[in-house]
Amino acid sequence: MKTGIRSRRPRRVAVSLVTGGAMLLGGTLASAPAHAAAAPPLKNVASPSIVAKGGFVMETQFGRTTYSKSADTKRPTGSTTKIMTAKVVLSQSNLNLDSKVTIAQDYRNYIVNKGASSANLVVGDKVTVRQLLYGLMLPSGCDAAYALADKFGTGSTRSARVKSFLGKMNSTAKSLGMTNTHFDSFDGISNGSNYSTPRDLTKLARSAMNNTTFRTVVKTKSYTAKTVTKSGSTRTMGTWKNTNPLLSSYSGAIGVKTGSGQVAGYCLVFAATRNGKTVIGTVLGSTSSSQRTTDATRLLNHGFARVG
User: Fold this and answer.
1) How would DSSP label each residue in 14-82?
2) Which pLDDT belongs to residue 103?
3) 251 a catalytic residue
4) Is the pLDDT of residue 19 over 60?
5) Can 79 be counted among the known catalytic residues?
6) Of 31, 118, 140, 185, which is the active-site residue?
7) From 31, 79, 117, 185, active-site residue
8) Model-level pTM?
């Protein structure tokens, strides 16, 4: 974009499109200027077959849909819910990523009672918010999700703070235009009313990827946290491995989050950048972890083929 005055023409003021297209520039999703060139037509490429019950893909520069299958059908989302958990945390005003959270016994009890995925956080350890975000998004730690909801909700009791945090999740969903989404949990372990759609989760991921910390976390393959114990010594945690196989198998992959459950099936919100173009999307209700990877790979290939 040129910003000077040419000849005697009056200077134009650049206007950003909030809901128009967004483009990934230097790793950041940026709004396209109002006077930008019109989007070139998408190439006509045969749609791939996927096993997942629902799927949606868009390219981010102009926000155009490249693939859709039952994109607005409400489905359980498993741990892809944690994208919103991270989004809410990172949207807090005056956020200090190095502030510490003391791991409570309740977080550990929750993991045991639910048989949930864990970051293996140790009761009494002091863990930074930044470390909890890695524990949330890489090994999909439900203990990390609980700790973050407790930390960033408001109220005099833990249950009140969690309820407050869920309110923030749902108000954020509404502000993003996620009209077919509702959260009743901070981690995707539903109480009966935790659902979204492929289109809505793609909207969420597109927005979350505007945050530098979020982008850094979700593209990280492994991370080792050093926490502070009750006695003040340093504990080196076991290495957290990212559950997203695309980071190793798909060239240009930059995120985002896996999810699974007996009702949800196998889910994946994914994103990749190639030749300066970014494709982002979601599959919900695939039949296995390997199949969701295959589904996502097909949709990424199709997306890049369509944008050229």
Assistant:
1) P-B-SSS-EEEETTEEEEPBTTSPPPPPPP--PPPP--SSEEEEEETTTTEEEEEESTT--B--GGGGH
2) 98
3) no
4) no
5) yes
6) 140
7) 79
8) 0.88
